[in-house]
Write a structure and sequence with these properties.
One of its GO terms (biological process) is L-amino acid transport. The protein has 231 residues and is an alpha/beta fold. The protein is built from ten helices and ten strands.
Length: 231
Amino acid sequence: MLEIDRIDAGYGRAQVLRGLSLRISPGEILCLLGRNGAGKTTTMKAIMGLLPLTGGQVRLDGQVISELPAHRVAGAGIGYIPQGRRLFSELTVAQNLEIGLRVKNSGPEVLEGVLELFPRLRERMGQRAQTLSGGEQQMLATARALCVEPRYLLLDEPTEGLQPSMIEAIRQVVVVMRDRGVGVLLVEQRVDAVLSVADRVAFIENGRNLETVAADDLRRDHSVIERHLGV
């Protein structure tokens, strides 16, 4: 289990997260919803060790990982697809994927498994990342994270700016990973996208927990979404 236990974090003197707690189980998709500025991206960075905690802990199967540098958090089994993708734009598709493989010194069988999920990337292995379409770049960012062989996967706004066919392709991969026992923490603004994949939805505001609700309940009754998000 990935446990985020009462964490505090922020930027300089600006505190963003205030005692935030989340639990993600293997084979579960937990979606994080909140208004702009609620602390969703900050939560992702804090889990990955990209932002130091000022309180609380992040634990993976009972082991504290919040004191580890970011590369060791990835090596422990957490893949991260940040908002904006953060690809190495001058490198080829193959080189970007190789960077992911090096985290655990994974072999060609891991790469082959990832390319089975993203056949379009197989056709573009020699192409530089910056020349890909937006949807293909999102595929590459996701594929690179999967090369880490993650036990948990963090996705920050993966459908932003994508056309419907690309959104569906990313959604299918997320569901496949869930079915393979990977726990997923998804930050997503599109409520329809959240409800199409989520098992549970955690609402946050001003870096604090509001409530966590089963997605099935939200599909039947949107009043909780309207109350917290105003949509």
